[in-house]
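Researcher: Quick test of sequence recovery. Tokens follow.
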């Protein structure tokens, strides 16, 4: 137990129902009010999650109202994506419509994770290497451990990164060698964003003072054996 207590939360799961021997999943009617300039982006994101547009109307304030039909599993994590696509202006609401047989799996919604390969404290040099591969989620001096997720890869597939690695000292001085490393501010995820981030092989550790994303299997060798 760290910091009083600790919860480990997995990827949200949709509650299914077996009807006449067939597994059924809930379907919802999704309403999105958004600026007309963002209609294409919103429609594209919902379509990627296998939702389809039922109607599109203009509101009195000049925005557009889009009504979709989409599975509940397609809605998971959608809100934050729509807020990003619409610059924080989209308003969404959904209501249950019916159960229907489970369809094909949804595509992966994000790239791979940057995963810490060593335990220790993150340093600027190691985080700079990580930021060259994607987006970091932590600040320098953050305690990390093997298997902890420290960022989002810019490509598909997870990537092991040693963010505790310090710059090697040499007797030779070169131009710019002593310049301070300038890091991009990390993308600090909220609790809701962290839950949306999770894939089925990942967990979120929640304590009163912090939250940490991690792989379910912390050891790299064990993950390879499990095909993760």
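Model:
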């Amino acid at each position: 137990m760290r910091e009083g207590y600790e919860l480990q939360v997995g990827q949200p799961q949709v509650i299914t129902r077996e009807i006449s021997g067939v597994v059924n999943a809930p379907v919802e009617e999704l309403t999105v009010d958004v600026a007309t300039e963002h209609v294409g982006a919103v429609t594209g994101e919902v379509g990627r999650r296998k939702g389809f547009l039922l109607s599109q109307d203009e509101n009195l304030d000049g925005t557009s109202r889009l009504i979709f039909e989409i599975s509940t599993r397609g809605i998971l994590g959608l809100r934050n994506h729509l807020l990003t696509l619409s610059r924080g202006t989209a308003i969404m609401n959904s209501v249950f419509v019916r159960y229907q047989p489970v369809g094909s799996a949804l595509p992966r919604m994000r790239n791979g994770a940057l995963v810490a390969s060593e335990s220790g404290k993150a340093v600027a040099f190691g985080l700079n290497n990580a930021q060259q591969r994607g987006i970091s989620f932590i600040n320098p001096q953050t305690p990390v451990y093997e298997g902890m997720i420290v960022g989002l890869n810019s490509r598909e597939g997870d990537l092991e990164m040693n963010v505790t690695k310090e710059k090697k000292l040499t007797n030779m001085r070169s131009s710019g060698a002593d310049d301070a490393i300038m890091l991009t501010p990390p993308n600090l995820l909220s609790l809701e964003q962290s839950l949306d981030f999770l894939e089925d092989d990942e967990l979120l550790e929640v304590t009163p003072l912090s939250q940490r994303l991690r792989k379910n299997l912390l050891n790299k060798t064990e993950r390879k054996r499990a095909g993760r």
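The chain has two domains: 17-101, 113-170+177-225.
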